[in-house]
Design brief:
two-stranded antiparallel sheet, mainly alpha, globular, two-stranded antiparallel ribbon, about 45% helix, about 230 residues
């Protein structure tokens, strides 16, 4: 299940929880398919089970959404110990999200590590890193966000990736067209330092600035929450 879809679900349920007129009309339908790809009438033919949204679903969704937006991931992690079965796809999505916190050995999240591993195996073009979801096996970030992660891997004081177009250092993030062309011009390879990172012999965060957001948590070198897979405080 797409973790982004689960975040959207808990956000919407939290939004409607205290709007009784709308809340009483809500129904949940668990499907294993991309809704955007379904033709009109397909759900009627399929007839998946539909359930009412009760206070149980609303309470779980509100707790998850508020914990994800908190200043630390502690509350989000603590929710894994609760019964979340009323939203059966939520817990796996939460684990995928927590895996994007930096690793205790490499200082990188799951998607960053997976991109390094793909580059190491010869995927030198960014299209593969950005779009081959089944091979990348992570589904948290969109195309632009994958680019920002790659920028961090390639343009820090001690880069793990070589070959990323230098023009990306100065291109405005609000101009996706020029940035996309720069990514497409790039031909990537691992640096010697990058090889040590994927071998878990170097910690990327010990040599490079970390400045990104995980939900409401601002990850920096001084505030580096890690996932082991248990939560490790800075």
């Amino acid at each position: 299940m797409d973790p982004k879809a689960q975040l959207q679900l808990v956000w919407l349920l939290d939004h409607f929880r205290f709007r009784p007129q709308a809340a009483t009309k809500l129904r949940l339908c668990l499907v294993d398919a991309e809704m955007i790809g379904l033709r009109p009438g397909a759900l009627d033919e399929w007839q998946p089970p539909v359930v009412d949204v009760t206070e149980t679903e609303f309470a779980i969704a509100s707790a998850a959404w508020r914990a994800y937006r908190a200043k630390t991931p502690e509350g989000f992690f603590d929710l894994l110990g609760r019964d979340l079965s009323a939203l059966p796809s939520l817990k796996p999505a939460m684990i995928d999200l927590l895996a994007e916190l930096p690793s205790p050995s490499t200082g990188l999240g799951a998607t960053e590590m997976r991109m390094l591993e793909m580059v190491a195996r010869g995927y030198s073009l960014t299209n593969a890193l950005f779009y081959l979801e089944s091979l990348r096996q992570t589904r948290i970030f969109n195309e632009n966000e994958h680019g920002y992660l790659l920028d961090g891997l390639a343009h820090g004081p001690r880069p793990a990736v070589a070959g990323l177009d230098d023009e990306l250092r100065s291109l405005d993030r609000d101009k996706p067209g020029p940035r996309l062309r720069a990514y497409q011009r790039s031909e990537l390879s691992l640096t010697k330092f990058g090889q040590k990172v994927i071998a878990h012999k170097e910690d990327f965060s010990q040599h490079n600035p970390i400045n990104r957001w995980w939900g409401g948590t601002h990850l920096t070198n001084d505030n580096l929450w890690r996932w082991a897979p248990t939560l490790i405080k800075p």
